[in-house]
Amino acid sequence: MMGAGLAIDSRSREFQEDPYAVYRRLREAGPVIRVAVDGELRWVISHYAQAIEALRDPRFGREAAPPDKAAGLVERLTYTHSMLNRDPPEQTRLRRAAGGPFRARAIATLRRDIERRTDELLDAIEEAGEVDFVEEFAEPLTIGVLSAFVGLSERITRPAMKGRLSPRSVVNLRALLEMKFAERRKSSLETDDFLGSLLASREAKDFESDEEVIATYVVILAAGQHTTAKLLSNGLNCLLANPAQLEILRGRPELIGSAVEEMLRYESPVQATFRWTHEDVTIGDRTIPRGAEALLLIGAANRDPLQFGSPDDFDVERTNNRHLGMGAGPHLCIGAGVARLIAETAFTRLLRRFHHHLEGTPGREPRWGRELVFRGIEELPVRVIPGTAGAAPG
């Protein structure tokens, strides 16, 4: 069936400020419907059960067509060799080859660096009194942590992390990494850091080329920073907009893990993902034909009342929170552990430092970005409440 009278205009201010009203109407029209999305008619999946089914179903793929192995450098490093845009078995191989740095023990070593960087940024916020949380905390923290994680300077990583990949920046990144590859190979093949782990996979031929290793760097830098910074800014906005929940978390800091999961459900940085059908796929009473493009609305599925009780309430005590904020199936986010560690560490220290002393800047509203796939605050003005500097010791 067609979603009569329904449409998604992702560039509209109304949609960006509250896409969930649109999602609600889409769910009411059915789990799988045809809808105009930014002027183009697409298959849209908005219910949780059908969305998770599609994320796990190999008939729904990320490849619209076989990748062009002779494509230009930028396309090869951002698409052809990217685990984000490949289907199994190639996606499985690339993900396995890149998995070493993301094991729990390796991720745990990041905690001290995250704590140090968080405290330095909180010092600056306290000194300034009033800042844009995105510019002065979320972005510098994630850029700094992920740059150190992959072993590159922020000067090199910033273009990729800020979404400014150009042919020149890609060429520069490739040249730098090829130099580092050569240096490491001449010395010894260490495997206890990001580069060493990936080069070990290359030597084992899990990566079939150096370009596949470089493409992994691009994925972690671009996708990892973009979504984790949004998790921080969206998450703080959730707390400030729900003061009763903020008070619960302040009184029970052991809930920080469930609070971060609720942030991922309630205001997921990834709101949608596209898939292409490799054959006819029947879901319920609807058949999506082979070669069709389907839009899986993660943000709608995460508010589905058939899966979550009181889905439009932000609840830091929510249990059994099997949200889709980190994906599902083969494309479950490879950096989920890193993102969770950054968020849990940052919010723990932020709440300990400021306790009752941080609020949204009066008279200034958060400014949301205008995207369909990602949802994130681009500007979040906050201030230390006057006369309360020097928060509760921790």
Q: Characteristics of this structure?
A:
394 residues, six-stranded mixed sheet, globular, alpha+beta, 13% strand, single chain
How many domains in all? 1
Instruction: Figure out the total of helices.
Output: 16
CATH architecture: Orthogonal Bundle
> First CA to last CA: what distance?
57 Å
Topology order in helix (H) and strand (E) letters = EHHEEHEHHHHEHHHHHHHEEEEHHEEEE
Radius of gyration: 21 Å
CATH class: Mainly Alpha
The CATH H-level superfamily is Cytochrome P450
The helix/strand class is alpha+beta
Sum up the overall morphology in one term. globular
List the helices and strands and how they pair.
Elements: E1 2-8, H1 13-17, H2 19-29, E2 32-37, E3 40-45, H3 48-56, E4 60-61, H4 73-80, H5 90-98, H6 104-108, H7 111-128, E5 130-132, H8 133-150, H9 154-161, H10 167-187, H11 194-203, H12 210-241, H13 243-251, H14 256-266, E6 272-277, E7 281-283, E8 286-288, E9 293-297, H15 298-301, H16 336-354, E10 358-360, E11 367-368, E12 377-379, E13 381-384
Parallel strand pairs: 1-2, 3-9
Antiparallel strand pairs: 2-3, 4-6, 5-13, 6-9, 7-8, 10-13, 11-12
Helix pairs in contact: 4-12, 7-8, 7-16, 8-9, 8-12, 9-10, 9-12, 12-14, 12-16, 14-16
